[in-house]
Amino acid sequence: MKSTIIRFLAVFCVGLALWGCSSGSGDAPAIDPTTGRHPANWIETHWVEFRKDRDQCVSCHGSYLDAAQSGGISGVSCFSPNRGAQVCHATGPAGHPAGWGAADQHGRSGAMAAPAVAAGFAYCSRCHGALFDNGPARSCFACHTNAPHPDAPWHGTTASGTNHIFVDQGNAPECAKCHANGANSTLQPTTPAPAGTPAGCFNNTLCHGAEAGHPTGWSDPNSANFHGPRAKATDSPSGGFSYCRRCHGATYQGVGAAVSCFSATVGAFSCHNGGAPAVTPHSPAPWRAARTHTNTDTTNAASCAACHANGANSTRQPTTPAPAGTAAGCFNNTLCHGSDVQPPHPVAGAYLPSAQHGADAINKNNNGTGLNTCQPCHATPASGANPRFNVPRGATLTAGCETCHTARTAHPTPWLIGRGTTQGVTNQLRHSTLATLATAGTAVTNYCTLCHGANLDGAGGVAPSCVSGSSRLNIAGVNAVCHFNAVAVKDVGTGLFNIQTGCVSCHGNPPVGSAFPNRDLQHTEHLFPNVTCGSCHSGAGYATVLHGNGTANVVLSATFQDKDGGAPAYNAGTGTCSNVSCHGGQTSPPWPSGQINVSTDCASCHAYGTTQFNSFSSGDKRHHTEITLVCSECHDTAKLATTHFTNLQTSAMEGPASSTLLDSLNYDPATRSCLFTCHIGNESHTRSMTW
């Protein structure tokens, strides 16, 4: 009987409790009268009833303010950390935990987290209202002003450093309340999603399409929108490696929807290791090919330091470690490089004068430098043909080499000493200096062909042909042409250029044109086997300081000095030469217009006497001075032509003069006399007169 009474009292108490939980104002929580349990989905919706009247739960669950008095007759405490797999209220349901006002608490760990009983934007809306400013709790706009999150652009630019890329994608339906189809955003989906598509971060229902807000071609290395240049740009809210870290994580391993930079592929494109999982968030080492680290803006040094501090993960270490606390920099021994780069040169303004970087660029000092070693740091592409040397470098070279040089060139224009200017300074270097190098052929092959084509004819190159014929250079104020015939001969065996092809490249052999540098003038008349360009332009040939300076420098070779010992000289004012042996020491006719008929104007170079090498003085003086003054009356000009100019560089006459006499003179070398009839009175010339 006693046990029956006890069972009755227990049932009565439970019934009383159930009656208390299920009757009254109608706001009481719903309980199944048979099982005494809440509905199956109660854990997802109980907060609604709790918000109506918190005290109505006390009768079953005990205190919601004091964990020690929590639990009640249900044994389910409001302070339970979890209910099965469901995370609950470890600190109690009444209000938020201490420190909830901090951005990393209510933001990163709360609203931005995956939707749950106590996380996600929908969780916030339970108290703060469907629009986050219309609930019983404080409006989210009281702090955030324009939205229930930091002001746009929500890219980590706020004091708290929060960033919407860390918002779990499960919150997309809440974001859609304000941002459906790109509303209230500077970014709209490229193609609106079909009607009825569930809200998502990357399906064109909100702001982004499939490429997470990046432009089309972001993953395509052949696209103008490829992500590499943006990552290597100046560190800023819209570029640089730290810009990538906002979505891809501090170690570039990927966060949320942002892929890992160490992925093998993204879509149809291979990533940083050619289709295999990458070991770096950039092109594989050595990073000096078509995509090179040398054109990465130095403001990214802090990001590079994450992997390369003190030369880590690099074949190059700083020569002297930087003092502790030194800010990361590309050339201060904190990463891989010291104050010099390879090939070594100063990175400061001291290297800007042409005598410094220019001489190295043309390998004038033959020290292992050269234009192709400048290319990795200063040009795009960093290797291969047709580079453009316009990669910015620091605050000085804002447009790379083109900051000082003409666009699309990395040398003075025109590249002749004394011709043209670079930043207002007359050019002091010329391309012919290459000929002075021991490796001249290699230099031309490696440097000039980079832009002027494999054969220097402009074919396949971005620079013009080096063989321009008689056409003027297309440069304002410059009246000059390039090589009109050929620059050099290419050795088919080695593939190298032999640039020692002489003056014929520009001037012809002999010059036969009417315009500089191929003006004929009297060149044709002076073309003899023993007379070269150096005979009259001594020391002014290819690769000398006098060559290509805009002036026709006439320097007569000492080989042709006359017998009197006077130095051969050219008078530019009169265009005449003097003290030249082949002219018998006499002043020559003017170079531009003077002429000598070698058959009749013998006295222009030959005078009787012994004062010059080519003076005539043999035999009876009367023959040369009294009988006749016309040389051709005795000398056969046809015979003379074969030996007359054979060895002008020597002082002796080639062959006996008697061999040039007319056959009609019947000259006998043995008796040195002639037998012929004179014209005057038909007087006979007997052999009694010896020559």
Account of the protein in words:
The chain has 691 residues and is mainly α. The chain has a two-stranded antiparallel sheet with strand order 1-2. Strands 3-4 form a two-stranded antiparallel ribbon. It is built from 17 helices and 13 strands. A hairpin with a 2-residue loop joins β3 and β4 (269-270).
Largest sheet: 2 strands, antiparallel
Strand % is under 5%
The shape, in one word, is: rod-shaped
Uncertain regions spanning at least 5 consecutive residues: 1-25
Can you give the helix content as a percent range? 10-25%
Main β-sheet, spatial strand arrangement: 1-2
| Radius of gyration from the alpha-carbon trace, in angstroms | 48 Å
Continuous helix count: 17
Mean pLDDT: 80
What string, H for helix and E for strand, traces the elements in order? HHHEEHHHHHHEEHHHEEEHEEHHEEHHEE
Number of strands: 13
Query: Which class do the helix and strand fractions yield?
Result: mainly alpha
Distance between the termini: 180 Å
Topology:
Layout: H1 2-22, H2 42-52, H3 58-61, E1 82-83, E2 86-87, H4 103-111, H5 121-128, H6 141-144, H7 172-179, H8 227-231, H9 241-248, E3 265-266, E4 269-270, H10 301-308, H11 354-361, H12 371-378, E5 398-401, E6 421-422, E7 425-426, H13 440-452, E8 489-490, E9 497-498, H14 504-507, H15 533-536, E10 569-571, E11 576-578, H16 621-627, H17 637-641, E12 676-677, E13 684-685
Antiparallel strand pairs: 1-2, 3-4, 6-7, 8-9, 10-11, 12-13
